[in-house]
C-alpha cells in the first residue's frame, strides 16, 4: 500500500452563505473547530481533537452529535479524490456517485487519495453535557436504565455508558466495577435532570466523583474529571467532552447492536470483564456502549 502524509494540507474555510465548510485532508478536529466556532455553527465531529478529518469521514465518524446529525460522513456533500491514474475527480451525489457512496465509510479510504472534503454545518445552540459515575452497585440495572434513557430520547441525547474497573487487578469482583456515563443532551439542564430520574431511581450517582478515583498513572483511560452536569454553549460543551485518549498502545474491538442489549447480554458482558487476567493499569475501556445515529 501507499501511505501519504497530508498533515500540512490543513486549510479550513467556511462559507456563511452556503453553510458549507471546506476542509483539506490534513486538518484535524481541533483545526475545524477553530474555524467554525466564531461562526456559531457546528459539524458532527469526533471528541478527540487530534483525530484527522480524513480518517474521521472515510471511516464513518462517531461523535456526540451522531444521534442528532448522523455520522460525520452523513454530512459530506463533496470530496476531491486523486485516483490511481493520477486524475483528480470530485465525488458528490450527482457526479461519480459510486465513488461518493464508497468514500462514506464503506472502503477504509482505499479508493484513492482524498485531498479535501466539503461538509454541511449545523446550528450550535446551548447544550447540556454530563459526566456521572455510580458506586459499585447494581451494574446491570444501571446499564439497562441508561439504555432506556437513550432509546427514549434517540435524537436529543447522546451517551457513552460503560462499566469500568476501580482498581488495577485481575479477575475483578462486582465490588471493583462501577458504571459511568458521559454525553450530551440537546436541551436545558432542567430537562436533562428530568429524563435522568429513572436512572437515579436505581442508584444515586457519586457526587463530584471522577470516573474511578484511580490515579492517572494506574489506569488506561481519560484524565480525572469531576462528575458534573453543565449547561453550556455548544463549543464549550465540546471542549468539556474532548478527550486526550488514546494513551500508548492498545487494541480495540467493537460491534454494532441493532437493538438494546438484554439483561442476559449485560450479565454476559460483565462475566467476561471479570475474567480480565490483569495488568499494571486499571482498564477503563472494556464494557462500553456508544449511542449511534446516521442516515
What's a concise summary of this model?
The protein has 295 residues and is α+β, with helices and mostly antiparallel strands.
Explain this structure:
The chain has 295 residues and is α+β, with helices and mostly antiparallel strands. The chain contains eight helices and 14 strands. Strands 1-2-6-4-5 form a five-stranded antiparallel beta sheet. Strand 4 and strand 5 (88-91) form a beta hairpin. The protein starts with 11 loop residues before the first strand and ends in a 5-residue tail after the last strand. 35% of the residues are buried.
Give the arrangement of secondary structure elements.
Elements (H helix, E strand, L loop, with lengths): L11 E4 L4 E5 L4 H8 L4 E2 L10 H6 L7 H4 L6 E7 L5 E4 L5 H7 L9 E8 L1 E2 L3 E7 L5 H14 L4 E9 L11 E9 L3 H14 L16 E2 L7 E5 L1 H8 L21 H11 L8 E2 L3 E4 L5
Parallel strand pairs: 11-13
Antiparallel strand pairs: 1-2, 2-6, 3-7, 4-5, 4-6, 8-10, 8-12, 9-10, 9-14
Number of beta-strand segments: 14
CA radius of gyration = 20 Å
- Classification by helices and strands: alpha+beta
Order of helices and strands: EEHEHHEEHEEEHEEHEEHHEE
Strand content: 15-25%
Strand order of the largest sheet: 1-2-6-4-5
Instruction: Flag low-confidence runs.
Output: 209-213, 215-220
What structural keywords apply?
295 residues; alpha+beta; five-stranded antiparallel beta sheet; 14 strands
Amino acid at each position: 500500500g501507499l501511505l501519504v502524509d497530508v498533515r500540512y494540507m490543513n486549510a479550513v474555510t467556511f462559507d456563511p452563505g452556503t453553510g458549507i465548510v471546506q476542509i483539506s485532508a490534513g486538518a484535524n478536529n481541533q483545526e475545524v473547530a477553530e474555524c467554525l466556532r466564531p461562526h456559531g455553527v457546528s459539524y458532527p465531529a469526533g471528541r478527540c481533537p487530534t483525530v484527522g478529518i480524513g480518517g474521521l469521514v472515510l471511516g464513518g465518524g462517531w461523535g456526540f452529535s451522531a444521534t442528532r446529525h448522523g455520522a460525520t460522513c452523513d454530512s459530506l456533500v463533496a470530496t476531491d479524490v486523486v485516483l490511481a491514474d493520477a486524475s483528480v475527480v470530485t465525488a458528490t451525489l450527482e457526479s461519480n456517485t459510486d465513488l461518493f457512496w464508497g468514500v462514506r465509510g464503506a472502503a477504509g479510504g482505499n479508493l484513492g487519495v482524498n485531498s479535501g472534503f466539503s461538509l454541511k454545518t449545523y446550528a450550535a445552540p446551548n447544550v447540556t453535557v454530563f459526566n456521572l459515575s455510580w458506586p459499585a452497585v447494581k451494574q446491570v440495572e444501571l446499564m439497562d436504565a441508561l439504555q432506556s434513557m437513550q432509546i427514549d430520547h434517540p435524537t436529543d441525547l447522546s451517551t457513552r455508558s460503560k462499566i469500568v474497573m476501580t482498581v488495577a487487578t485481575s479477575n475483578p469482583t462486582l465490588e471493583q466495577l462501577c458504571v459511568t456515563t458521559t454525553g450530551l443532551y440537546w436541551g436545558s439542564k432542567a430537562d436533562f435532570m428530568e429524563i435522568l430520574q429513572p436512572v437515579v431511581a436505581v442508584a444515586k450517582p457519586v457526587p463530584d466523583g471522577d470516573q474511578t478515583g484511580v490515579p492517572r498513572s494506574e489506569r488506561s483511560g481519560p484524565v480525572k474529571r469531576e462528575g458534573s452536569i453543565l449547561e453550556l454553549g455548544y463549543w464549550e460543551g465540546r471542549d468539556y467532552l474532548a478527550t486526550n485518549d488514546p494513551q500508548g498502545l492498545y487494541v480495540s474491538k467493537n460491534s454494532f447492536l441493532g437493538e438494546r442489549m438484554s439483561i442476559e447480554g449485560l450479565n454476559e458482558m460483565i462475566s467476561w470483564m471479570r475474567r480480565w487476567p490483569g495488568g499494571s493499569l486499571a482498564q477503563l475501556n472494556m464494557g462500553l456502549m456508544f449511542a449511534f445515529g446516521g442516515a
